[in-house]
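Folded chain entry —
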Amino acid sequence: MQNVEEINKNIENKTVDKQVWQSLGFDELQTIEIIRGIENGVDVSVYCKEEFNAAQMKALRLGLEEKLDVSRFADAQYDYMQMEELKQAVRSGINMDDICNPKFSHSVMREIRLASELNYDLTRYAKLGYSGEVLRQIRLAKKEEIDLTFFVEDNYDEYQLNEIRLGIHSCVDITKYLLHEYNGEQMEQIRLGLEEGIDVTPYNMVGFSSGQMKQIRLGLEEGIDVSEYADPFIDAVSMKEARHRISDKWNDEKPALNELQSQEILMGLTSGVDVSLYADPRYTFKEMEKIRLALERVIWMGCLSMDVKMQLLQYSVLIMNG
């Protein structure tokens, strides 16, 4: 038990002798915080107590030096990370009654504070025991004018809520991945496929891991036949190898140029343009013609820079993708 009378006497005398404070039961780090507070002219009596560890002392000392009102959280029930969030709440001027609760983790406190800046009250969810990560998804959704209430109350976790929120934001059909059995990573692979406009049916099955889903999704996006490896019993590494093999074979079996396409390439060579930008049989001859004419105009203008080439390459990709 510390001698409170001796502690108060040394606070009053502004003692900065380490040995004195350590003799009163404070460890070296606590002693440093007490002496720094005295040297900086703050009221160290706020935190010069055995129940505060050095990290809590530092959080309170810095708050006092900033002339913040730390009285609401100068309590050992709050760890130093909670204290840091509460200091930020004081700076923000929010209602401290909403946030000062030692049962709230620092991440919950942070979300309540950030939501209050949007004039949105998250304390209802905090009091129900939802984690800071779930509260973060609710806050981000609110910022995007998305209502996640149903999904939160239906006990989707923070990772699943993130994918639901992103899916709603992207205007995809989230019903394709709303099964509770999907974890967040599986939901992500289905969402990414929907955003790319592919048919996710070959892999939106609970039996596939997120890694397997990714390899099937990438194969579908590449336009290859994934039926050879879209099997839950084939691991993700083997799927990747199969995808590369099929993709390489597909590239080797590209259709040959027809006469009209060959003519466009020949005309491009004659006019001195970089035909590699469109010498691909997947382009129709009309698409090739558009690219060739654009390249010829650039040459005529005398400004065939690398930047312009890249713009034309992007344009050619857009044509290919429709």
The radius of gyration is 32 Å. The mean pLDDT is 89. The CA atoms of residues 259 and 285 lie 9 Å apart.
